[in-house]
């Protein structure tokens, strides 16, 4: 089996069974749209999938191995990167922010420089490399956050409301990068309150309701493979 599969995932919070998921499969190069009402548990589920929060029960199947927590969490942290709803950029340049994770992994400096340069070019933000990351627009900050995630070469990327608070152009730029990530073989899980926009990108739509996942049809037209950069920028 390729991909990751979670079985029998359960989490109780304040005496309430918040998550009660029999089976959830993530595939590389595919995009899963996860929807649900406020407080349904979407962010909590993403944190479990990223290995940041242990469930009460659950099993991870990965590359033929069957893992329970905490070994499952270690495996998830290796394969999965979680992008917060409001990307946290620390004080420093855009290049420093993108390099941070690689430096923490002990990657040698020349390789860090090369991978950061490649990732910034990929996102069309090489011209922002020396800028103070905290003084960028919301759309630029989101592109930095996606670049910082991609430079770690994850197999799966979890995006919590990646286009919340972005205007039309910045939203298109974000969807453009998400389509590219998917085409590069990264598996995506996207939460959003914009079903039509995400449905253009997604292969499946799962609704989280009452702790359970239910498959729903995708809404609206699917986008083709076209990858013209919005706004005609770099
Ligand atoms: N660390 C925590 N401690 C206590 N309760 C929590 C914690 N994290 C989440 N919750 C509760 O769990 C429930 C699900 O929260 P979660 O943030 O996962 O929902 P969500 O579907 O992402 O919501 P939204 O769409 O509003 O972002 C909420 O009732 C929330 O208050």
UniProtKB/TrEMBL annotation:
Region (Disordered): 215-234
GO cellular component term of the entry, any: ATP-binding cassette (ABC) transporter complex
Keywords of this entry: ATP-binding, Nucleotide-binding, Transport
CDD domains: ABC_cobalt_CbiO_domain1
Keyword Nucleotide-binding: yes
InterPro entries registered for this protein in UniProt: AAA+_ATPase, ABC_transporter-like_ATP-bd, ABC_transpr_CbiO/EcfA_su, ECF_ABC_transporter_ATP-bd, P-loop_NTPase
Superkingdom of the source species: Bacteria
ABC transporter domain sequence ranges: 4-230
Annotated Gene3D superfamilies: P-loop containing nucleotide triphosphate hydrolases (3.40.50.300)
Matches recorded under Pfam families: ABC_tran (PF00005)
Database matches in SUPFAM superfamilies: P-loop containing nucleoside triphosphate hydrolases
GO molecular function terms attached to this record: ATP binding; ATP hydrolysis activity; ATPase-coupled transmembrane transporter activity
Entry's family note: Belongs to the ABC transporter superfamily.
UniProt name for this protein: Tungstate transport system ATP-binding protein
Species the sequence originates in: Inmirania thermothiophila
Upper classification of the organism: Bacteria, Pseudomonadati, Pseudomonadota, Gammaproteobacteria, Chromatiales
